[in-house]
Amino acid sequence: MHNITVGMEFDILKENNNIANENYEMLKEHDIVSVDFMGSIGAGKTALIIKLAEKLREKGLRVHAIAGDVTGADDMNRMVASGMTVTNCNTGKECHLDANMIHKCLHEIDLSQVDVLFIENVGNLVCPADFPLGTDVRVVVISTTEGDDMVRKHHDIFIHSDFAVLNKIDIADAVGVDPNVILNDYKKLTGNRKVMIETSARKEIGLAEIIEEMGL
């Protein structure tokens, strides 16, 4: 039974990667820069995406988002209210987006009208790590409100992302968290080869650094 389970898992991940490659090629054909935002519920992914989209629109770039959630359209509605164009993607019961879900979404979007695609993954620090979507960049967002042990508890998602964001830096003192503990854990885990950007979506701290890291 154990061997069968492993085989099935391998096939699922392999198929996901195949579709992710198709997504990547489709996005490259349209010269779209794409970013997968992973992170837990309440880390501030939606707020960051909204603020980043505002900054990019000021530079003349057309930004579209795919809002991933198990159910509902709350995040999508917040993005739309900010002036973004958005495609909602409900997973039903799944705790992560996968490449096939994104593939279907891409066929619903007029990609000729998009320069930058932001994908907000389902709030989870475990499952999304194993399911690349075909984006240029994978980012994991955590916040000071989650405590100072997030890197130590969730190695995989930090290893499988291109860089990390430590959000809500402006309230670190209020929640009793020392950001240096998180930053040092991240440096140790990644061998100091990746960057963790300190941000506050509310105060617009660190947005320029994220945009630069995304190559925009």
The fold-level CATH name is Rossmann fold
CATH superfamily: P-loop containing nucleotide triphosphate hydrolases
Would you count the extended β strands for me? 7
The largest sheet has its strands arranged as 3-2-4-1-5-6-7
Q: Using only CA atoms, what is the Rg?
A: 17 Å
Mean pLDDT: 94
CATH architecture: 3-Layer(aba) Sandwich
Give the C-level CATH assignment: Alpha Beta
Supply the helix-strand structural class.
alpha/beta
Order of secondary-structure elements: HEHEHEHEEHHEHEH
Write up what this structure looks like:
The protein has 216 residues and is of the alpha/beta class. The chain has a single domain (2-213), classed as Rossmann fold (3-Layer(aba) Sandwich), CATH 3.40.50.300. The protein is 40% helix and 19% strand. The chain contains eight helices and seven strands, in the order αβαβαβαββααβαβα. The protein has a seven-stranded parallel sheet with strand order 3-2-4-1-5-6-7, with helices on both faces. Helix 1 (2-29) runs parallel beside helix 4 (99-106) and helix 2 crosses helix 8. It starts with a helix and ends with a helix.
Helices and strands in order:
Layout: H1 2-29, E1 33-39, H2 45-58, E2 63-69, H3 74-81, E3 85-90, H4 99-106, E4 116-120, E5 137-143, H5 150-153, H6 155-159, E6 163-167, H7 179-190, E7 196-198, H8 207-213
Helix pairs in contact: 1-4, 2-8
